[in-house]
Amino acid sequence: MVNAEDSPLEAACEFHVPLCAGPERSVAATKSFIATLSASAQLVGHWNQEDGLLEACHALPAGLREAATQDWSLAIDALRDCQRLMVIGRGAGFAIAQEAALKLKETSAIQAEAFSSAEVRHGPMALIDDNYPLLVLAPRGAEQPGLLSLATEMRQRGARVLLAAPDDIAERDLTLSRAEH
């Protein structure tokens, strides 16, 4: 999958999928990342004939537009003076956590590190004390209950948890777009 056609990467490949996301105009190459995820999901949906996944892919543009209109001021206020941060995900959400941590480094100079919710319980948790900032990504799926449990546990330890979860999760702090539900 390539965003820049006629690139050395494309030339080195026998087959390629053009992403057509347009030129990246910043260090944070978010368009290419989202286009890669979307193309991957569409390929999996077609290979496995998963109509639900394909329907979700078709809804993605509207979901991304909706996410862009959300009120993210809670996150901005919480991260304004942040120097360090853990971003926690699980399963497919771990890749999103890794990308979020990278974007926080690139755009805000925050020492952000991504961990899976299982991994954070084995060592990185020792770093978490009062007001330690955590961004926990908890979209729908089999991993969600464990992520919600971890968010609750970390709040009990005194961590400053931003929980990104669907609207119907009472403990949530940030609203995920409908495409991520």
Written description of the protein model:
The protein is of the alpha/beta class and 181 residues long. It has two domains: 8-68, no CATH class; 73-180, 3-Layer(aba) Sandwich (Rossmann fold). The protein contains seven helices and five strands; from the N terminus they run ααααβαβαβαββ. It has helices at 8-12, 30-47, 51-68, 73-79, 92-108, 117-120, 144-156, and strands at 84-89, 111-116, 133-137, 160-165, 174-175. It has a five-stranded parallel beta sheet with strand order 2-1-3-4-5. Strand 1, helix 5 and strand 2 form a beta-alpha-beta unit. The longest helix is centred in the N-terminal third of the chain and has 18 residues, at 30-47. It is globular and about 50 Å long. The two termini are 25 Å apart.
